[in-house]
Amino acid sequence: MSSQDPIPKQSPDPETLNDPEPKQPPIEVSEVEVEAEAEGEEEEGECGFCLFMKAGGCKDSFVGWENCIREAEENKEDIVEKCFEATAALRKCMEAHADYYEPILRAEKKAEEQAIIELEKEKEEMDLGSQEDSKDLQKKSDGE
C-alpha cells in the first residue's frame, strides 16, 4: 500500500479499549441505514452526510447541533450566535474522534484555507484601489 494508508497498522491503545464511544472506521451507508431502522431512528430521506455524522462517536453532539440549527431557522434567529456552543461541542467531539471524522475535518480545513486566501485577495484589491484613489487625489491636488 502507499505511504498514506488511511488505516494505521497499530495495536489498540490500552487507554481507549474501555472508551464508551469507541473509535471506529467509517461504515457503509447501507449498514448505517439498517442500524437506524432497527433502532427506529431513521428520518425519511435523511442525507448521507447526516447518516455519516450519526454513525460516528459524535451522534449526540450532531443531533444537538442539528436541533439548534432547526430552532434558529424556525425562529429566524442568528444561527451563529444561537448555536455557537453546540457547534463548538460538535467540533471538539469530532476532533476527539478524528480517525472517523477526518474527511470532514480535512474538508473544513481546506474550505477555511480557501476563505482566508479569498479574503487576502479582496484585501489586496482594496489596498490597491485605495492607493490608486490616493494617487488620483494627489494628481488632482497637484494639477488643479
TrEMBL record:
Region called Disordered, residue ranges: 1-44, 118-144
InterPro entries in UniProt: GCK_dom
Compositional bias of kind Acidic residues: 30-44
Domain GCK: 45-119
Record-linked PANTHER family: F26F24.3-RELATED (PTHR34357:SF2), F7A19.14 PROTEIN-RELATED (PTHR34357)
Identification of the protein by name: GCK domain-containing protein
Species in which this protein is naturally found: Hibiscus trionum
Taxonomic lineage from the root: Eukaryota, Viridiplantae, Streptophyta, Embryophyta, Tracheophyta
